Predict the structure.
Amino acid sequence: MNEVNFVQASNLKEKPDVSKIGFGTHFTDHMFEMTYTEDKGWHNPQIIPFSDITISPANATIHYGQAIFEGMKAFRQGDKVVIFRPLDHLNRLNNSARILDIPQVDVELVHTALKKLIEIEKAWVPAQRGQSLYIRPFIYADDGFLGVSVGKSYKLYIILSPVAAYYSHGFSPVKIMVEDTYVRATQGGLGEAKTPANYAASLHAGLVAHKKGYDQTLWLDGVERKYIEEVGSMNILFKINGEIVTPELDGSILSGITRRTVLQVAKEWGYPVSERRISIDEVKDAYKNGTLEEVFGSGTAAVISPVGVLGYKGEDMVINDGKIGPFAQKMFDYVTGVQCGAEKDIHNFTEVVAEV
Amino acid sequence: MNEVNFVQASNLKEKPDVSKIGFGTHFTDHMFEMTYTEDKGWHNPQIIPFSDITISPANATIHYGQAIFEGMKAFRQGDKVVIFRPLDHLNRLNNSARILDIPQVDVELVHTALKKLIEIEKAWVPAQRGQSLYIRPFIYADDGFLGVSVGKSYKLYIILSPVAAYYSHGFSPVKIMVEDTYVRATQGGLGEAKTPANYAASLHAGLVAHKKGYDQTLWLDGVERKYIEEVGSMNILFKINGEIVTPELDGSILSGITRRTVLQVAKEWGYPVSERRISIDEVKDAYKNGTLEEVFGSGTAAVISPVGVLGYKGEDMVINDGKIGPFAQKMFDYVTGVQCGAEKDIHNFTEVVAEV
């Protein structure tokens, strides 16, 4: 019943030089599509040629934002193509769906469809270390009327984009500004979901940070404006006096797949790990007394992103002399090693989905 | 240069029986479209046949929610068509644009285009009192790549939908649930903008309220969870001991056009008016000591929406015996009277835009 149909594109695109393209600018020849209606539920799963999509000008998502997405990556390992933790990502898609009142998808079916899509598009998976095929599943309410209510029809797509190594000039620390004016999400809001609202709320602060010379924004909680939340495109971790500390999952931050990878591996390596509330004042104090050893982000895009400078209220904390810390380096090497096959994958983080 | 072109639809639709259709389900024959690109700015303003629109599957708004909208109404006054406070709505569109980092529009140009559109579609403006032609301008980021950043290309549309009287069974009080779990918007967030994020954040609480037998949700502030904010589709006002009290515009609620109309008229009628923080405890106390005379919402859709029941933490406050209060009735009659031409429009709230 739910077999995934395949409509082949009549013309295949020329593949770009991945090292010269930005993130998410080029897409492969095909995409996966599935439709939800009240009477049929999720139906008509099919792989079709990549093309523009058509919506009503009264589309519920354009007006009221009922949408969610995921982001994961496929890598070349010699003659194999693997995806990093695909089921974790698809289960998180369903968690976002729950928060936005979008009907749950059949993870097994979408997983099957994703593997079929990657098999078809395997020639698009870049072979160089650091490069990957970015996988973007997304769901949006497709109703074409203007009432504010939970949608009755949805579309799910998976689109694929070959992406360069995140660090085009080599793995290097970023400058992060701690945001004390704008709020991304708060308790009781949508912060735990991968949904457009959280990104819309981050745009202006991102501009302000860039103007001040920072790469990204570190969010504080919306209530007390003192507890660390996340960086918007990644979770944040601190190494303080030997311990790995990261904000607990309190409903206002994303439950990062790379975050849980890092925490699991760090524990196995023997580091004390703590998921708890951590205030910006505690970070400042640790900086002052010399116990703030490392700060780094974790996320699908960059895997590990060492923070060289943390700016707060006009003052810059320079972390580990602005250099990559040894823990961040070791974790980056390990996780990217598992992804490219240089490290043995003892946790089964990767799943082989195609042979080239 | 910025003349508004007109491409006429080849087939005109049959007009529906407005009394039998829901809100925002039917659209007129034409719509206004304008395009923004970095090199040309806003350009190519044109009125074209109403039709579906085409977006990239990587569309920035579907993924990251950079969009805004407005809602206003056109009414028949005998042989004339008027719009209620169109420039206030278009200026508020630009305020939302500022918050979402969307390029400002030329209000004069959009105003001209709107009048031309209504002139073309004037036969769609329903003639019965209470019915209207709902006007929905909206702007969305139209970029087709997956980076989280402020868009470089945008589309603006204005679509028109004939709508029935809001109170199909007569002007009557609603049941409102005070929401103490979920948060719509908070200080430092997007609450002041008409943007999808705020509506996405309201969907789940709306479902919960409906399941508990309430019509809508009254939001509390996201920090202390005690100060009254708004109802999501309308602002909220209280009549306490003869005074009209409404939450101040603090950045997390919408600056309603009907709200400002009501406050201005109430002052002229000699009522004391106060825009200030008001806590749910103050409302409860006023209810208990008998000084909570009326509660009502204000918004473009309903104009005035008397609240008959206010539920908070499982207890219902029955306002004015569940009946429409005299102030709400008087204000409803006055504003709808101005809109339909039964009342003299001494404030120039309405603008004549077409003759039928």
Remarks:
- The radius of gyration of chain A is 21 Å.
- The CA atoms of residues 238 and 352 of chain A lie 32 Å apart.
- Chain A has two domains: 5-168, 174-323.
